[in-house]
């Protein structure tokens, strides 16, 4: 018990003591009130005069006190301090009535009743000091009851041992109850801490989610601003580039006569080719910016793959011959017709084939095949070029993404070909696939719907 006395009880322990004490006090006041209501009549009829009258009055007072506490149990249980005080008062009344009986009508058997009062205190009270006080009070009552001249030494020893054993039992019951309360309080405290941790984690998660949403909105705004800037700049660059290309072509072909020195014609050719490269770059940037800004428009119609491939091959073949790369298009089925935007399809094919030729070493080959796959026509461009490491595949599909190696550094490029081809394919409800192995080559496939009923799947407004 002293161990419990030295401990500073937590709020959870005090609350549990209060709850249990209030409930125990309600039961105790009801039971003992009824008990003394019965005992006052038994004292009146069975005890000799004047002890019967005195014990009748004492029992009546005790019964009234217990019934009064029961009626005021709501008020008593409002605070822990009040509950603990009335626990002590109830046990003191119980012990006092028993001692009064021993004084009015001496009887060694009263020691047994006081032993039961001590056990009841161990089962009811929640204060160590209250339990010790009840034990001392009952011990005084037992001592007084056993002091009578008619009480033999055997009875004294018997009732003394009985009281001592009852006190030990009361102390054990009190210790067990306090241990259970502390365990319950510890479990409740752990549960409350777990709930608090969960609540903190939920708040943290909510705050993180809000920050992520804000960051996403900021990133989206920055991306739109970037796309708008690139689109505006592309428009501004197009006009002077068209003029440069036009005038350099006039000079290259000597439309208005000789330039005076043959080197001027060579310079004009370099200006025209460089301007053409820059114009293609500007067009690619403009198209990619429109796609990212959801403003790219496609106008689907029936596109015959045989004709589309023929036009693209005519533009790529000279480049392949110059690089000594075998370029071959396998037989294209005459019925191969897709629903797509003709200009976008030609740009996709041109990007894929020019990339394949550009990154294939002399003596390699580039093959183009057309095949039907369920409700789609697929176009596959396969080369025996340098290939792309698997970890770099996501990078080459990102705008301006390139794989840094000796071969790529020797080739001109901006890293827009594959990303633009992929974006154009997907905006027309197509499917883009890229497979590559270092030293073995690359395989790129694009697939498009082949029936006109798929036209409604195209995003003609890109909104």
TrEMBL record:
Residues 232-452 form the Histidine kinase domain. It catalyses: ATP + protein L-histidine = ADP + protein N-phospho-L-histidine. It comes from the Bacteria. Keywords: Kinase, Membrane, Phosphoprotein, Transferase, Transmembrane, Transmembrane helix, Two-component regulatory system. Its EC number is 2.7.13.3. The keyword Membrane applies. SUPFAM superfamilies: ATPase domain of HSP90 chaperone/DNA topoisomerase II/histidine kinase, Homodimeric domain of signal transducing histidine kinase. One of its GO terms (molecular function) is phosphorelay sensor kinase activity. The chain crosses the membrane at residues 25-47, 53-73, 85-102, 132-150, 156-176. InterPro entries: HATPase_C_sf, HATPase_dom, His_kinase_dom, HisK_dim/P_dom, HisK_dim/P_sf, Sensor_HK_Regulatory, Sig_transdc_His_kin-like_C. Pfam families: HATPase_c, HisKA. PANTHER family: SENSOR HISTIDINE KINASE RCSC, TWO-COMPONENT HISTIDINE KINASE. This is histidine kinase.
């Amino acid at each position: 018990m002293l161990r419990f006395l030295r401990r500073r009880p937590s709020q959870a322990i005090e609350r549990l003591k209060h709850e249990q004490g209030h409930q125990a006090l309600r039961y105790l006041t009801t039971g003992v009130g009824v008990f003394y209501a019965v005992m006052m009549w038994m004292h009146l009829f069975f005890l000799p005069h004047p002890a019967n009258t005195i014990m009748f009055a004492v029992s009546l007072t005790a019964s009234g006190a217990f019934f009064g506490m029961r009626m005021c149990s709501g008020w008593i249980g409002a605070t822990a301090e009040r509950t603990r005080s009335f626990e002590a008062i109830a046990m003191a009344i119980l012990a006092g009535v028993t001692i009064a009986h021993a004084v009015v009508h001496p009887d060694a058997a009263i020691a047994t009743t006081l032993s039961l009062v001590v056990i009841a205190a161990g089962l009811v009270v929640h204060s160590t000091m209250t339990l010790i006080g009840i034990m001392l009070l009952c011990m005084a009552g037992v001592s007084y009851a056993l002091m009578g001249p008619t009480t033999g030494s055997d009875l004294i020893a018997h009732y003394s041992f009985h009281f001592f054993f009852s006190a030990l039992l009361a102390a054990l019951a009190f210790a067990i109850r306090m241990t259970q309360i502390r365990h319950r309080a510890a479990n409740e405290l752990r549960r409350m801490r777990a709930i608090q941790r969960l609540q903190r984690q939920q708040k943290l998660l909510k705050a993180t989610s809000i920050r992520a949403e804000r960051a996403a909105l900021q990133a989206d705004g920055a991306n739109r601003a970037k796309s708008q800037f690139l689109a505006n700049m592309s428009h501004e660059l197009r006009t002077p580039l068209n003029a440069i290309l036009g005038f350099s072509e006039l000079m290259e072909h000597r439309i208005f006569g000789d330039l005076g020195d043959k080197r001027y014609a060579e310079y004009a050719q370099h200006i025209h080719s460089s301007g053409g490269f820059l114009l293609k770059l500007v067009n690619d940037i403009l198209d990619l910016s429109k796609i990212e800004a959801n403003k790219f428009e496609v106008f689907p119609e029936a596109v015959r793959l045989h004709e589309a491939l023929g036009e693209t091959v005519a533009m790529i073949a000279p480049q392949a011959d110059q690089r000594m790369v075998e370029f071959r298009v396998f037989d294209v089925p005459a019925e191969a017709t897709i629903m797509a935007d003709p200009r976008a399809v030609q740009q996709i094919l041109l990007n894929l084939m020019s990339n394949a030729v550009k990154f294939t070493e002399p003596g390699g080959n580039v093959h183009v095949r057309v095949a039907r796959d369920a409700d789609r026509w697929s176009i596959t461009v396969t080369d025996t070029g340098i290939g792309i490491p698997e970890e770099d595949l996501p990078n080459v599909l990102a705008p301006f993404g390139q794989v840094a190696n000796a071969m790529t550094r020797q080739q001109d490029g901006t890293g827009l070909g594959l990303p633009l081809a992929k974006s154009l394919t997907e905006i027309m409800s197509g499917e883009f696939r890229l497979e590559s192995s270092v030293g073995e080559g690359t395989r790129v496939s694009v697939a498009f719907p082949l029936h006109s009923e798929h036209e409604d799947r195209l995003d003609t407004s890109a909104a």
